[in-house]
Amino acid sequence: MAKKKINIALIGSKFMGRTHSNAYLKVNKFFDLPVEPVMHTIAARDPKDLKKFSARWGWENWTTAWKEVCQNPEIDLVDVGTPNHVHAEQAIEALEAGKHVVCEKPLAGTLDDARAMVKAAKKARKCQTFVWYNYRRCPAVALAHQLVKSGKLGRIYHVRAAYLQDWGGPDTPLLWRFQSKFAGSGAHGDLNAHIIDMARFVTGDEISEVVGSIEQTFIKERDLLEEAGGEIRGKGAKRRKTKGKSTVDDAVLFLTRFKGGAVGSFEASRLSTGDKNRNRLEVHGEKGAIRFDFERMNELEWYDATTDGKCQGWTTINVTRGDDGHPYVGSWWPQSHLIGYEHGFINQASDMLKVLGGRKPEVALPDFADAFETQKVLHAAIESARNRCPIKLSQIK
Ligand SMILES: NC(=O)c1ccc[n+]([C@@H]2O[C@H](COP(=O)([O-])OP(=O)(O)OC[C@H]3O[C@@H](n4cnc5c(N)ncnc54)[C@H](O)[C@@H]3O)[C@@H](O)[C@H]2O)c1
Q1: CA distances from 74 to 1, 5, 114, 118, 184 (A)
Q2: What is the gyration radius of the CA atoms in the chain, in angstroms?
Q3: Which of 42, 104, 374, 378 to mutate to test the pocket of ligand 1 (most atoms within 8 A of CB)?
Q4: Region of residue 48 (phi > 0: left; psi between -120 and 50: alpha; otherwise: beta)
Q5: Residue 392: which H helix or E strand, with range?
Q6: Mutate which of 15, 56, 84, 92 for ligand 1 pocket (most atoms within 8 A of beta carbon)
Q7: Residues with CB under 6 A from ligand 1
Q8: Residues 52, 391: Cα–Cα separation, whole Å
Q9: What is the pLDDT of residues 245-304, one digit of tens each?
Q10: Looking at the predicted structure, is the pLDDT value of residue 227 above 60?
């Protein structure tokens, strides 16, 4: 019997436009899915670029009219891959039109927008929502989640997370990512969002309090770009000579308590010189510990404190053994044939399509309500930094 088709419309055709297009293009080739994804329509703002993008990635249609896309009765799933300030408007339009929605992270630039999205998702009962917290779907992170869930770490004492990049120096122009009206925040919503989600996912616990926080903008002014909104990530962007104000953080660091009693530290920076995409998570428990670093994404470090002390030490697990039950990799290559950044997105596309076809995802997928928990932590950390006080998560509704 022919599989049910899921017609997908993607809004946004630049960085995430490429990762998502690649995911929809490949997912059906590697995963056995209950439904068939169809790359129906790509929407964004620049018609010249869109035509080329659509032809290159195999989209059936392209348009600059995203609202029409949301209303198109042929579309089943709307994918929001645009800057943070439009997530709410686009996701809500799609949900009200009865579409399933997957949105890029952070859920929104502001807590108010995120709350409105959760409300719309609750109202649209037949619609599924998902959020692209793609690092959950690195096999090593999914394995860490499974190990903690199976009790291998026992009681958790410490969570240490840092997401460090260094592309935000003074030569980088005023992209939308440096303007709070578009991005909401800087490194915080961009990078801390990921590690908050990973920490929640791996520990299975929730943050109960932000105890203290620092928000720092080192570079206060940047070159203006010719293009409104500044969609280009840096190199090759046409600049004007005049400067504009950066209205977001370059770095945010904060300390937390978890409901289960663990303590945590989180750090995000775009000015961590030498670190390109250093997304790290460390969790220490009474029976063992794990360490993950995205720059070595195929590996999970594991310490088993329950074995004979003479033989204890960190073990590096190459998380490529599909036959032995490592998550996702059984659909890819033989062991030690490594995978990369794009696979997290393809793995997530496979889980979303499984759910839309009535099956279970390999590991839990974040929906809007789940991503709102991460958004609350983002909000609490900024409130804590600005008011120089601890913030209990129960204060944030
Ligand atoms: N999951 C991840 O690892 C990851 C990585 C990077 C970015 N992101 C998130 O993805 C989203 C997009 O980031 P990006 O890096 O792809 O940005 P980008 O600037 O590279 O691309 C933005 C795209 O959105 C389109 N766009 C902008 N405003 C629009 C509007 N009003 N209507 C329709 N289209 C519009 C632009 O034409 C462009 O195609 C952001 O929310 C960002 O936080 C996630």
Answers
A1: 21, 10, 27, 24, 33
A2: 21
A3: 104
A4: alpha
A5: strand 391-392
A6: 15
A7: 11-17, 44-46, 66, 81-84, 86, 104-105, 132, 134, 190, 231
A8: 48
A9: 999 999 999 999 999 999 999 999 999 999 999 999 999 999 999 999 999 999 999 999
A10: no
Q: Distance between CA atoms of 73 and 252, rounded to whole angstroms? A: 43
CATH 3.30.360.10 at 136-336+366-387, yes or no: yes
Residue type, 146: Q
CATH topology for 4-131?
Rossmann fold (3.40.50)
CA of 76 to the centre of ligand 1 (A): 21
The DSSP H or E segment spanning 22 is helix 15-30
Nearest Cα residue to atom 22 of ligand 1:
82
pLDDT at residue 35, as a whole number: 98
Instruction: For the full predicted model, state whether its pTM sits above 0.70.
Output: yes
- The tokens for 348 are 């997530």
Domain ranges of the chain: 4-131, 136-336+366-387
* Ligand 1 atom at shortest distance from the alpha carbon of 230: 19
**Inter-residue contact 128 to 354 (CB < 8 Å):** no
Tokens at 226, concatenated: 């010719």
- 232 pLDDT band, cuts 50/70/90, is very low
In the numeric block, which tokens belong to residue 352? 């979303």
Determine the residue of 14, 66, 133, 188 to mutate for testing ligand 1's pocket, defined as the one with the most ligand atoms within 8 A of the Cβ atom. Answer: 14
